[in-house]
Amino acid sequence: MNDFELAKQKGVHGVEAKGFMSYSTDAKGKINVDYDATVKAMARDAALQTPVSVGVPSVFTTFIDPQVVPILFAAQNATKIFGEERKGDWTDNFFTFPVEEYAGNVTPYSDFAENVSTDVNVDYPTRENFLFQTVIKYGDREVGLAAKAKLNVVSSKQQASAYVMAMAHNKFALYGVEGKKVYGLLNDPNLNASISPISITTGSTANSTWTAKCAAQPEKTANIVYNDINKLWAEISKNNGGLVDQNSRIILAVSNTRAPYLTEPNSFGLTAMTMLKQSFPNIEVVQLPELTTTAGEMLYMTVPDLFGIETGICAFSEKYFLGRVVPEMSSYKQKVVGGTWGAVIRRPSLVATMLGI
Protein backbone atom coordinates (compact mmCIF):
# COMPACT_ATOMS: atom_id res chain seq x y z
CA MET A 1 0.00 0.00 0.00
CA ASN A 2 1.46 3.38 -0.97
CA ASP A 3 1.50 6.51 1.20
CA PHE A 4 -1.37 8.17 -0.64
CA GLU A 5 -3.68 5.16 -0.21
CA LEU A 6 -2.83 5.09 3.49
CA ALA A 7 -3.57 8.80 3.73
CA LYS A 8 -7.00 8.23 2.18
CA GLN A 9 -7.79 5.62 4.82
CA LYS A 10 -6.77 8.16 7.47
CA GLY A 11 -9.24 10.67 6.08
CA VAL A 12 -6.85 12.77 3.95
CA HIS A 13 -7.96 12.87 0.32
CA GLY A 14 -9.66 15.05 -2.28
CA VAL A 15 -12.21 15.08 -5.07
CA GLU A 16 -9.63 15.06 -7.89
CA ALA A 17 -6.46 14.23 -5.97
CA LYS A 18 -4.49 11.26 -7.27
CA GLY A 19 -1.21 11.48 -5.39
CA PHE A 20 1.36 13.51 -3.52
CA MET A 21 3.98 15.72 -5.07
CA SER A 22 7.41 14.11 -5.48
CA TYR A 23 9.17 14.08 -2.13
CA SER A 24 11.81 12.41 0.00
CA THR A 25 12.35 12.06 3.74
CA ASP A 26 15.56 12.62 5.67
CA ALA A 27 16.91 10.64 8.62
CA LYS A 28 14.71 12.62 11.02
CA GLY A 29 11.55 11.93 9.02
CA LYS A 30 11.27 15.48 7.67
CA ILE A 31 9.56 15.66 4.29
CA ASN A 32 11.35 17.54 1.51
CA VAL A 33 9.33 18.27 -1.61
CA ASP A 34 11.10 17.89 -4.96
CA TYR A 35 9.35 20.65 -6.89
CA ASP A 36 11.46 20.18 -10.04
CA ALA A 37 10.51 16.51 -10.30
CA THR A 38 6.88 17.42 -9.62
CA VAL A 39 6.83 20.02 -12.40
CA LYS A 40 8.32 17.49 -14.85
CA ALA A 41 5.71 14.90 -13.86
CA MET A 42 2.95 17.45 -14.29
CA ALA A 43 4.28 18.42 -17.71
CA ARG A 44 4.35 14.78 -18.86
CA ASP A 45 0.83 14.14 -17.59
CA ALA A 46 -0.51 17.39 -18.99
CA ALA A 47 0.71 16.48 -22.47
CA LEU A 48 -1.47 13.37 -22.38
CA GLN A 49 -4.66 15.09 -21.24
CA THR A 50 -7.27 17.15 -22.98
CA PRO A 51 -7.18 20.72 -21.71
CA VAL A 52 -10.26 21.82 -19.81
CA SER A 53 -12.39 24.69 -21.07
CA VAL A 54 -10.61 27.30 -18.96
CA GLY A 55 -7.26 26.33 -20.46
CA VAL A 56 -5.81 24.74 -17.29
CA PRO A 57 -4.67 21.10 -17.53
CA SER A 58 -6.55 19.13 -14.92
CA VAL A 59 -3.30 17.67 -13.61
CA PHE A 60 -2.60 21.01 -11.92
CA THR A 61 -5.59 20.34 -9.65
CA THR A 62 -4.77 16.75 -8.79
CA PHE A 63 -1.67 16.88 -6.60
CA ILE A 64 -1.52 17.39 -2.83
CA ASP A 65 1.65 18.74 -1.27
CA PRO A 66 2.89 16.02 1.14
CA GLN A 67 4.08 18.72 3.56
CA VAL A 68 0.46 18.79 4.75
CA VAL A 69 0.73 15.28 6.20
CA PRO A 70 3.18 15.72 9.11
CA ILE A 71 1.29 18.77 10.39
CA LEU A 72 -2.08 17.10 10.15
CA PHE A 73 -0.92 13.90 11.84
CA ALA A 74 1.03 15.66 14.59
CA ALA A 75 -0.30 14.63 17.99
CA GLN A 76 -2.91 17.03 19.34
CA ASN A 77 -3.49 17.18 23.07
CA ALA A 78 -6.92 15.55 23.00
CA THR A 79 -5.61 12.51 21.13
CA LYS A 80 -2.93 12.00 23.78
CA ILE A 81 -5.74 11.08 26.18
CA PHE A 82 -7.95 9.09 23.85
CA GLY A 83 -6.62 7.86 20.52
CA GLU A 84 -8.33 8.89 17.31
CA GLU A 85 -10.16 6.68 14.86
CA ARG A 86 -12.06 7.16 11.63
CA LYS A 87 -15.73 6.22 11.69
CA GLY A 88 -17.69 6.35 8.43
CA ASP A 89 -17.28 9.33 6.12
CA TRP A 90 -18.92 12.66 5.35
CA THR A 91 -21.99 11.01 3.81
CA ASP A 92 -23.01 9.45 7.15
CA ASN A 93 -25.31 11.45 9.42
CA PHE A 94 -25.25 9.31 12.56
CA PHE A 95 -22.87 6.94 14.34
CA THR A 96 -24.19 4.47 16.91
CA PHE A 97 -22.43 1.90 19.04
CA PRO A 98 -23.99 -0.92 21.09
CA VAL A 99 -23.57 -1.06 24.87
CA GLU A 100 -24.40 -4.22 26.83
CA GLU A 101 -25.25 -4.50 30.52
CA TYR A 102 -25.54 -7.93 32.12
CA ALA A 103 -28.42 -8.41 34.56
CA GLY A 104 -29.66 -11.36 36.61
CA ASN A 105 -29.50 -13.24 39.88
CA VAL A 106 -29.60 -16.74 41.29
CA THR A 107 -31.96 -18.57 43.65
CA PRO A 108 -31.76 -21.89 45.52
CA TYR A 109 -32.37 -24.85 43.22
CA SER A 110 -35.82 -26.44 42.90
CA ASP A 111 -37.16 -28.78 40.23
CA PHE A 112 -40.18 -26.49 39.83
CA ALA A 113 -38.73 -22.99 40.34
CA GLU A 114 -37.98 -20.54 37.49
CA ASN A 115 -38.62 -17.20 39.10
CA VAL A 116 -35.09 -15.78 38.60
CA SER A 117 -33.43 -15.31 35.22
CA THR A 118 -30.45 -13.75 33.52
CA ASP A 119 -30.72 -11.18 30.76
CA VAL A 120 -28.78 -8.59 28.79
CA ASN A 121 -29.80 -4.95 28.52
CA VAL A 122 -28.70 -3.36 25.25
CA ASP A 123 -28.57 0.33 24.46
CA TYR A 124 -27.45 2.18 21.31
CA PRO A 125 -26.00 5.63 22.09
CA THR A 126 -25.92 7.85 19.00
CA ARG A 127 -23.63 10.66 17.86
CA GLU A 128 -24.14 13.12 15.03
CA ASN A 129 -21.68 13.89 12.25
CA PHE A 130 -20.63 17.55 12.33
CA LEU A 131 -19.01 18.78 9.12
CA PHE A 132 -16.91 21.92 9.04
CA GLN A 133 -14.88 23.70 6.38
CA THR A 134 -12.36 26.33 5.42
CA VAL A 135 -11.37 27.71 2.01
CA ILE A 136 -7.96 28.17 0.40
CA LYS A 137 -7.76 31.15 -1.98
CA TYR A 138 -4.84 32.39 -4.06
CA GLY A 139 -4.49 34.81 -6.96
CA ASP A 140 -2.28 34.68 -10.05
CA ARG A 141 -0.34 37.81 -9.10
CA GLU A 142 -0.11 36.69 -5.47
CA VAL A 143 1.51 33.43 -6.56
CA GLY A 144 3.85 35.25 -8.93
CA LEU A 145 5.01 37.74 -6.32
CA ALA A 146 5.64 34.95 -3.81
CA ALA A 147 7.60 33.00 -6.41
CA LYS A 148 10.03 35.94 -6.75
CA ALA A 149 10.85 35.41 -3.08
CA LYS A 150 11.25 31.65 -3.69
CA LEU A 151 8.04 30.97 -1.76
CA ASN A 152 5.37 28.45 -2.71
CA VAL A 153 2.27 30.27 -1.52
CA VAL A 154 -0.11 27.47 -2.59
CA SER A 155 1.80 24.89 -0.53
CA SER A 156 1.96 27.29 2.43
CA LYS A 157 -1.78 27.85 2.32
CA GLN A 158 -2.39 24.11 2.20
CA GLN A 159 -0.20 23.71 5.28
CA ALA A 160 -2.06 26.55 6.99
CA SER A 161 -5.39 24.88 6.23
CA ALA A 162 -4.08 21.60 7.64
CA TYR A 163 -3.09 23.37 10.85
CA VAL A 164 -6.47 25.12 11.12
CA MET A 165 -8.34 21.84 10.54
CA ALA A 166 -6.20 19.99 13.07
CA MET A 167 -6.89 22.64 15.71
CA ALA A 168 -10.61 22.38 14.97
CA HIS A 169 -10.55 18.59 15.36
CA ASN A 170 -8.78 19.03 18.70
CA LYS A 171 -11.35 21.60 19.88
CA PHE A 172 -14.33 19.41 18.96
CA ALA A 173 -12.72 16.38 20.62
CA LEU A 174 -12.43 18.40 23.83
CA TYR A 175 -15.73 20.31 23.85
CA GLY A 176 -17.99 18.75 21.21
CA VAL A 177 -20.45 20.94 19.29
CA GLU A 178 -23.15 22.91 21.08
CA GLY A 179 -26.69 22.01 20.06
CA LYS A 180 -25.71 18.65 18.54
CA LYS A 181 -25.13 15.16 19.86
CA VAL A 182 -21.41 15.74 19.55
CA TYR A 183 -19.70 15.71 22.94
CA GLY A 184 -16.14 16.26 24.09
CA LEU A 185 -13.98 14.47 26.61
CA LEU A 186 -14.37 17.46 28.96
CA ASN A 187 -18.17 17.87 28.76
CA ASP A 188 -19.71 14.50 27.93
CA PRO A 189 -23.03 14.48 29.85
CA ASN A 190 -22.46 10.86 30.90
CA LEU A 191 -19.36 11.68 32.92
CA ASN A 192 -19.58 11.70 36.71
CA ALA A 193 -19.48 15.07 38.45
CA SER A 194 -16.03 16.43 39.34
CA ILE A 195 -14.82 15.82 42.87
CA SER A 196 -13.13 18.42 45.08
CA PRO A 197 -9.48 18.42 46.14
CA ILE A 198 -8.43 17.85 49.73
CA SER A 199 -8.87 20.98 51.83
CA ILE A 200 -6.17 22.05 54.29
CA THR A 201 -6.93 24.53 57.04
CA THR A 202 -4.18 26.94 58.00
CA GLY A 203 -5.18 29.08 60.95
CA SER A 204 -8.76 30.02 60.14
CA THR A 205 -8.38 29.70 56.36
CA ALA A 206 -9.36 26.59 54.41
CA ASN A 207 -7.28 26.13 51.27
CA SER A 208 -8.00 23.70 48.43
CA THR A 209 -5.98 24.96 45.44
CA TRP A 210 -2.42 23.77 44.95
CA THR A 211 -1.23 27.36 44.86
CA ALA A 212 -2.67 28.18 48.28
CA LYS A 213 -1.86 24.84 49.94
CA CYS A 214 1.73 24.74 48.70
CA ALA A 215 2.30 28.38 49.64
CA ALA A 216 1.12 27.61 53.18
CA GLN A 217 3.19 24.40 53.46
CA PRO A 218 5.96 24.57 50.80
CA GLU A 219 7.93 21.71 52.34
CA LYS A 220 4.95 19.42 51.73
CA THR A 221 4.29 20.39 48.09
CA ALA A 222 4.94 16.89 46.71
CA ASN A 223 2.73 15.26 49.34
CA ILE A 224 -0.09 17.76 48.77
CA VAL A 225 -0.09 17.14 45.03
CA TYR A 226 0.25 13.37 45.41
CA ASN A 227 -2.63 13.16 47.89
CA ASP A 228 -5.05 14.97 45.55
CA ILE A 229 -4.10 12.73 42.62
CA ASN A 230 -4.43 9.65 44.80
CA LYS A 231 -7.92 10.83 45.81
CA LEU A 232 -8.79 11.06 42.12
CA TRP A 233 -7.54 7.50 41.60
CA ALA A 234 -9.63 6.32 44.57
CA GLU A 235 -12.71 7.70 42.76
CA ILE A 236 -12.01 5.57 39.67
CA SER A 237 -11.28 2.53 41.82
CA LYS A 238 -14.55 2.99 43.74
CA ASN A 239 -16.61 3.32 40.56
CA ASN A 240 -15.28 0.16 38.91
CA GLY A 241 -15.71 -2.57 41.46
CA GLY A 242 -12.10 -3.67 41.68
CA LEU A 243 -11.70 -4.17 37.93
CA VAL A 244 -8.74 -1.78 37.87
CA ASP A 245 -5.72 -1.54 40.16
CA GLN A 246 -2.60 0.57 40.57
CA ASN A 247 -0.80 -1.47 37.90
CA SER A 248 -3.35 -0.53 35.22
CA ARG A 249 -2.36 1.87 32.49
CA ILE A 250 -3.43 5.30 33.73
CA ILE A 251 -3.41 8.66 31.96
CA LEU A 252 -3.32 11.79 34.09
CA ALA A 253 -3.97 15.09 32.33
CA VAL A 254 -2.97 18.34 34.00
CA SER A 255 -2.81 21.90 32.70
CA ASN A 256 0.54 23.41 31.78
CA THR A 257 0.15 25.91 34.66
CA ARG A 258 -0.17 23.11 37.23
CA ALA A 259 2.32 20.65 35.70
CA PRO A 260 5.36 22.26 37.44
CA TYR A 261 3.92 21.23 40.81
CA LEU A 262 4.58 17.59 39.84
CA THR A 263 8.32 18.20 39.96
CA GLU A 264 8.50 20.27 43.16
CA PRO A 265 10.40 18.27 45.85
CA ASN A 266 9.33 17.83 49.43
CA SER A 267 11.61 18.04 52.47
CA PHE A 268 12.98 14.56 51.65
CA GLY A 269 13.84 15.48 48.06
CA LEU A 270 10.98 13.46 46.58
CA THR A 271 8.72 14.91 43.90
CA ALA A 272 5.06 14.07 43.34
CA MET A 273 6.06 12.54 39.98
CA THR A 274 8.53 10.21 41.70
CA MET A 275 5.93 9.15 44.24
CA LEU A 276 3.32 8.61 41.53
CA LYS A 277 5.67 6.42 39.49
CA GLN A 278 6.35 4.32 42.57
CA SER A 279 2.65 3.84 43.30
CA PHE A 280 1.37 3.70 39.71
CA PRO A 281 4.16 2.28 37.49
CA ASN A 282 2.14 2.66 34.30
CA ILE A 283 0.93 6.21 34.77
CA GLU A 284 1.38 8.69 31.90
CA VAL A 285 1.15 12.45 32.35
CA VAL A 286 -0.28 14.63 29.58
CA GLN A 287 -0.31 18.42 29.60
CA LEU A 288 -3.69 19.73 28.51
CA PRO A 289 -3.91 23.56 28.56
CA GLU A 290 -7.71 23.43 28.31
CA LEU A 291 -7.84 22.13 31.90
CA THR A 292 -7.39 25.75 32.97
CA THR A 293 -11.10 26.62 33.03
CA THR A 294 -13.18 29.59 34.12
CA ALA A 295 -14.43 27.46 37.01
CA GLY A 296 -10.92 26.61 38.20
CA GLU A 297 -8.00 24.30 37.50
CA MET A 298 -8.94 20.70 36.69
CA LEU A 299 -7.31 17.27 36.86
CA TYR A 300 -8.41 14.58 34.40
CA MET A 301 -7.70 10.89 34.95
CA THR A 302 -8.68 7.86 32.92
CA VAL A 303 -7.88 4.19 32.47
CA PRO A 304 -7.75 4.32 28.64
CA ASP A 305 -8.60 0.67 28.02
CA LEU A 306 -9.95 -2.28 29.94
CA PHE A 307 -10.32 -5.88 28.74
CA GLY A 308 -9.19 -4.87 25.27
CA ILE A 309 -11.87 -2.20 24.81
CA GLU A 310 -10.91 1.48 24.57
CA THR A 311 -12.55 3.70 27.16
CA GLY A 312 -12.99 6.45 24.57
CA ILE A 313 -11.95 7.54 21.10
CA CYS A 314 -11.64 10.86 19.32
CA ALA A 315 -13.79 9.90 16.34
CA PHE A 316 -13.76 11.67 12.98
CA SER A 317 -15.47 11.05 9.66
CA GLU A 318 -13.11 13.15 7.54
CA LYS A 319 -9.72 14.41 8.65
CA TYR A 320 -8.79 16.57 5.67
CA PHE A 321 -10.93 16.38 2.52
CA LEU A 322 -9.88 18.60 -0.38
CA GLY A 323 -12.57 19.75 -2.78
CA ARG A 324 -11.92 20.54 -6.43
CA VAL A 325 -9.89 23.59 -7.41
CA VAL A 326 -12.27 26.22 -8.78
CA PRO A 327 -10.70 28.66 -11.29
CA GLU A 328 -11.90 32.27 -11.35
CA MET A 329 -10.84 35.00 -13.80
CA SER A 330 -7.46 35.52 -12.13
CA SER A 331 -7.54 33.40 -9.01
CA TYR A 332 -8.32 29.96 -7.64
CA LYS A 333 -10.16 28.65 -4.61
CA GLN A 334 -10.47 25.24 -2.99
CA LYS A 335 -12.62 24.04 -0.13
CA VAL A 336 -11.27 21.86 2.68
CA VAL A 337 -13.74 19.79 4.71
CA GLY A 338 -13.47 17.96 8.02
CA GLY A 339 -15.99 15.87 9.92
CA THR A 340 -16.17 14.88 13.59
CA TRP A 341 -18.23 12.76 15.96
CA GLY A 342 -16.48 14.37 18.94
CA ALA A 343 -15.04 12.23 21.73
CA VAL A 344 -17.00 9.00 22.15
CA ILE A 345 -16.60 7.82 25.76
CA ARG A 346 -17.76 4.22 25.97
CA ARG A 347 -17.16 3.69 29.69
CA PRO A 348 -17.61 6.95 31.67
CA SER A 349 -16.89 5.13 34.94
CA LEU A 350 -13.24 4.89 33.87
CA VAL A 351 -12.94 8.69 33.82
CA ALA A 352 -12.69 10.93 36.90
CA THR A 353 -12.09 14.66 37.19
CA MET A 354 -11.17 16.99 40.01
CA LEU A 355 -12.03 20.69 39.91
CA GLY A 356 -10.45 23.40 42.02
CA ILE A 357 -6.80 22.43 42.31
From TrEMBL:
Protein name (database record): Phage capsid family protein
